[in-house]
Amino acid sequence: MLLSPSRRWVLPGLVLLLWLGLGASTWWGLPALAWLGLITLLFAVSVGSLLPQLGFFGSILVGAPAGPGRVALTFDDGPDANWTPQVLDLLAAAGVRATFFVIGERVEREPTLARRVVAEGHQLAHHSHRHHWSLMFRRGRLLEDFDRCSEEVATIAGHPRFYRPPVGVVAPEVMDVVASRGVHLAGWDVRPYDTRVREATALRSQVASKVQDGSIVLLHDGALRDAARPVLVDALPGILEDLRERRLEPVTLAELVNEPAYFEGAPVRRPPRWSMLPVAVLSTLLALLATGLGSACAAEPSLPPELQAAAQELAANKTVSSRFTQTKTSILFAEDVVQTGTLLLRRSDGRLVWRYDDGPAVLMAGGRFYPAGVDAAAAGKEGSAGFSLPGSGSMIDLFEALFSLQAKALGKAFSAVARDANHFVLTPTDAGARALFGRVELEVGGSPLALRSVVMDEATGDRTTIAFVDVKIDAALPVDAFLTPAERTASE
Description:
The protein has helices at 10-27, 31-50, 84-94, 104-109, 111-119, 139-154, 172-181, 200-210, 231-245, 253-257, 277-297, 305-314, 376-385, 392-403, 407-413, 431-436, 485-491, and strands at 2-4, 60-63, 70-78, 99-102, 123-126, 162-163, 184-185, 216-220, 249-251, 319-329, 337-346, 351-356, 361-365, 368-371, 414-418, 423-428, 437-445, 450-458, 463-473. By secondary structure, it is an alpha/beta fold. The chain folds into 3 domains: 2-50 and 279-297; 59-267, Alpha-Beta Barrel (TIM Barrel); 305-491, Clam (outer membrane lipoprotein receptor (LolB), chain A). The protein is elongated.
């Protein structure tokens, strides 16, 4: 019997790495390691559950040793009154046997058809009673569903010793239930996706290209949703012909691995073993939450002394006006997009105005965007009310903090290092900042002292570079430049 190798140490190993990352986040201030560990754990559990061939949580039957020249054709989701008889007729015409992984509810509805499967020499196997993937993660209901289908099949042939979970999900709970019932978990090594392929020739080709001596082929004789004629019915004669030409004999799965198809007498029923997965994930989430709360309550990260000094000097500024050149680099653009314009900043209420030379003027105020320099009538209903984007409030707050060098706000959102007295690299630490930026570089200097350039590596992968020239500090700026359309209308 060829079983995929057990990887029982994969999950405990991932949990250990996760907790090491959690320790690093607690002791060395590296929370990214803990979150990376959690993501890795959840990813491994998901992949291991959806790809049974990996055998992350235990051994799974995926084929048999080559030599005898046999393969196992397995059919899931029946018995189906419309299509299973046609499949049986084709198998009988070819004189071959197969295995039918049946759904308990369908056996209840079609007991005569299930008896025909057994009477014609085929094997009945277990494919759940209700065929619902959510049961695979709920141990109590999974046990109930498992035993009910087993009893239903036993009324026809005997308690089945082979089980294939719905959708092939092999979550740890599934492995524990299978072990407690003493059955073989049946996977496959040939999956042609016959419920998706629309052409019989394509399905036949898929099987022919993958099947080999000892293979287990996953097919479907039952339609769960679509009542249309399955492609399998038209493709099966060609599949059987190809196997015959290659001298590969279709047999039942039990015959392929030389095991009994059914239990003799009452099946094994032991309590499932205790699973560490729910406890590991829950305790890790709680620990991460505690770490996050601890980080939130910790002292704000300090900025480099040079940046703090510049921020302190600029804190007294009431207004900033500047010309800018903005360069946008993106994989969506064939070449960089360069725009020029004027920036106006009023520190008293944090309002920003961006005036593009060849485009619109935009006012950022109170976490919303407005068309600048127009009244409510010209702006229209939506423009007068302004609009917001996911994270736009944080965006405006961060823009204000960056462009006016607000030390407290920057310290909450970023950790910073000085490349020299005038250049600083900021790495986002706050969730809002991480949602917008991967990294930010600031250049501060000149006379008067001011922000001279900002390079923003955005979370989307784009890069925006803004260079400021002709900077004016505390210049008298027109008040109406900072009015929303509704405010402008009210002032007139």
